[in-house]
């Protein structure tokens, strides 16, 4: 497809369970971001990947959150031992990076995974 | 002071009105400015992108940046019910990798 694809679109899980959220970025986009969007809270940055490495993990809220990216493409965000406060929409975005300046171009977002922890 | 401030609204206008959406920011290092539109249950989509002070026009949309005042605006002319969405401003620093900082978004409702 032409855009950023995220799966599942909705996930309901019980408190304490682990969940995996998947992001398939636009082909050729080396930069990949995860954001979290809660009602009334705006977009909260979680982690940034350049290729397979994550130079900025500063937004991950706790050690229950982790993410990986393989082959410079698909990324997985894993939340262990989910809590009710983890309920939110998790958005993935991808972008091009300038080979000369290293600057990231505007982000292209997927439609998100709506996570509900009961 | 938050890095990016944006009135959450909702802003309700009749069809055909001119809409003005605004953000203020605190860090003068920000150099790149974007507006995203987000429909319910969808991801944000890029509307406008600019890196200089002044105006940039695209159809019914005009983005305005005033770096001296640290103030950015999005104007929508001849607003349509299909413009009803949440509008997020996003700002980025100049040097190398720099993540985007988003405003919380303004909900716009355009009534027929």
Explain this structure.
The complex is a heterodimer of chains A (118) and B (112). Helix content of chain A is 0%, strand content 50%. Chain A has no helices and eleven strands. Chain A is globular, with a radius of gyration of 14 Å. Chain A has 118 residues and is mostly beta strands. The model of chain A has no long low-confidence stretch (mean pLDDT 92). Chain B has 112 residues and is mainly β. In chain B, strands 2, 4, 5, 9, 10 and 11 form a six-stranded mixed beta sheet that branches. Chain B has a five-stranded antiparallel beta sheet with strand order 1-3-8-7-6, with no helix packed on it. Chain B is globular, with a radius of gyration of 14 Å. Classes of the chains: A mainly beta (118), B mainly beta (112).
Notable characteristics:
heterodimer; A: 118 residues; mainly beta; 4-stranded antiparallel sheet; globular; B: 112 residues; 6-stranded mixed sheet; 5-stranded antiparallel sheet
